[in-house]
């Protein structure tokens, strides 16, 4: 027997339920394992494998993803924010119920109530491969304000890594940090925490064709959506018990044929998901419109729902949250998921009248309404204008930018630039995405686990609210409206 042992670590991250890529990844994994024993490969996922915008995930509670992970042969995963924040701990427990072939690692996650981890979540893992022992640490981004609302306590990830490295260093030959933190934190970790051999990253969707080396630590990442698989080849000397990285980078998989077994599994789960989402949740007496360049009834309905849910003075939301209208007749869960796919949560902020007015002026400008947005939970295409509830606006589109609004009333009273208002809106705006003054809102309160489509579902069951959504809240000024009607 040779004194050297070779281990190949394969890793994915931020697949976001791109199931078509999962079948290609399975083909790549099968080829890499061909002619090797189970002691010669290790397959890991670095989070955000699930994304509820996909029917297969939404309609099975994530079970479609778990079954693919099982069938592909993953051995450990870390939770990303798309798993940890879009599902409650109870829902995750159902998704990760036995039998699963992989370990789930959450080194910086415990339950808020008792400070303990559920049985399905491990603080770290030690995996043996031949005579080699690998320590796995898994950390996720510490969105503490959100996690605490669903009874998670997420600690400082770098402190958790440092503690685990200290605990594992004398027990294992090689330490891998599975990091769903982003490139900035990965580099910081490599610089500040000694004893880490390899960091496999995700969250910020960065792709390293070749690994970065920072000190003695290799930093890798495989991009997004499953277009690449990371590959790290390690040589382990049995006599000295030292490891050497021979190769570290990424391999594209787009041109590979899909694995037939995984493809069949996905088709079956999609059929099941569509059946589950076919539940009727409301009956509509009229059509509800969805537009991005002007207010629409669906946007108005959601603005009203946000106002009511958060007990605010007014509600506002970007029209781009809806990808299609709803026709009169039965409305199913699947239809709501299709037209409002974003895993975005309600929130309440306080904002001055001046800040509100600025955002409303921006909502009349194409550089905002036509702005394309990616990430931060948004699964639409363009931002769209603002749909509102609790306000009436008179505007003249022919005026200069930032001087188009003639009058604003809030619940029948003139808007006061100095006054502070409670605004029911969406978490996306607090991240600085879209309308700029909305990120300046104070006293931010988030509402989890409800998504905005859950609020729409409830409002659709109220006929009076549906009828109210048809009423316009944005009005063209008298002279301009008269000219427009004459032109028509």
Question: What does this entry show, briefly?
Answer:
The protein has 488 residues and is of the alpha/beta class.
Characterize the structure shown.
With 488 residues, the protein is α/β, with parallel strands linked by helices. The chain contains 17 helices and 26 strands. A seven-stranded mixed beta sheet has the order 6-4-3-2-1-14-15, with helices on one face. Strands 7-8-10-11-13-12 form a six-stranded mixed beta sheet, with helices on one face. Strand 14 and strand 15 form a beta hairpin. Helix 3 runs antiparallel to helix 9, helix 10 packs across helix 15 and helix 10 packs across helix 16. The longest helix has 17 residues. The chain is elongated.
């Amino acid at each position: 027997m040779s004194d050297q042992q070779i281990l190949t670590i394969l890793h994915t991250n931020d697949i976001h339920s791109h199931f078509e890529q999962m079948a290609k990844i399975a083909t790549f994994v099968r080829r890499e394992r061909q002619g090797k024993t189970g002691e010669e490969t290790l397959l890991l996922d670095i989070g955000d494998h699930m994304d509820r915008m996909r029917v297969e995930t939404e309609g099975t509670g994530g079970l479609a993803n778990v079954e693919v992970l099982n069938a592909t042969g993953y051995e450990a995963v870390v939770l990303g924010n798309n798993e940890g924040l879009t599902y409650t701990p109870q829902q995750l427990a159902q998704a990760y119920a036995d039998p699963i072939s992989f370990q789930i690692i959450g080194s910086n996650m415990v339950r808020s109530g008792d400070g303990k981890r559920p049985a399905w979540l491990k603080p770290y893992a030690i995996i043996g491969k031949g005579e080699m022992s690998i320590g796995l640490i898994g950390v996720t981004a510490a969105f503490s304000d959100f996690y605490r609302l669903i009874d998670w306590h997420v600690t400082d990830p770098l402190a958790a890594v440092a503690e685990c490295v200290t605990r594992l260093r004398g027990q294992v030959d090689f330490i891998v940090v599975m990091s769903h933190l982003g490139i900035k934190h990965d580099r910081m970790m490599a610089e500040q925490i000694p004893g880490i051999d390899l960091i496999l990253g995700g969250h910020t969707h960065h792709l390293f064709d070749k690994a970065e080396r920072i000190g003695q630590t290799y930093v890798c990442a495989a991009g997004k959506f499953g277009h690449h698989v990371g590959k790290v080849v390690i040589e382990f000397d049995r006599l000295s018990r030292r490891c050497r990285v021979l190769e570290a980078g990424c391999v594209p998989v787009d041109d590979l044929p899909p694995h037939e077994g995984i493809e069949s599994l996905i088709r079956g789960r999609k059929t099941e998901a569509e059946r589950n989402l076919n539940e009727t949740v409301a009956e509509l007496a009229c059509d509800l419109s969805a537009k991005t360049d002007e207010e629409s009834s669906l946007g108005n309905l959601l603005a009203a729902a946000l106002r009511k849910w958060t007990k605010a003075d007014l509600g506002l939301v970007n029209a781009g949250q809806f990808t299609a209208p709803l026709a009169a007749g039965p409305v199913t869960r699947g239809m709501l998921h299709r037209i409002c796919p974003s895993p975005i949560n309600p929130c309440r902020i306080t904002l001055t009248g001046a800040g509100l007015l600025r955002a409303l002026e921006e909502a009349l400008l194409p550089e905002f309404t036509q702005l394309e947005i990616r990430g931060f939970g948004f699964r639409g295409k363009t931002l769209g204008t603002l749909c509102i509830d609790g306000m009436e606006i008179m505007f003249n589109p022919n005026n200069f930018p930032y001087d188009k609004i003639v009058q604003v009333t809030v619940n029948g009273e003139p808007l006061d630039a100095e006054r502070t208002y409670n605004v029911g809106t969406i978490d996306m705006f607090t991240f600085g995405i879209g309308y700029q003054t909305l990120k300046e809102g104070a006293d931010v309160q988030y509402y989890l686990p409800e998504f905005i489509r859950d609020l729409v579902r409830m409002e659709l069951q109220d006929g009076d609210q549906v009828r109210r959504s048809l009423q316009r809240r944005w009005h063209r000024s008298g002279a301009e409206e008269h000219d427009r009607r004459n032109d028509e």
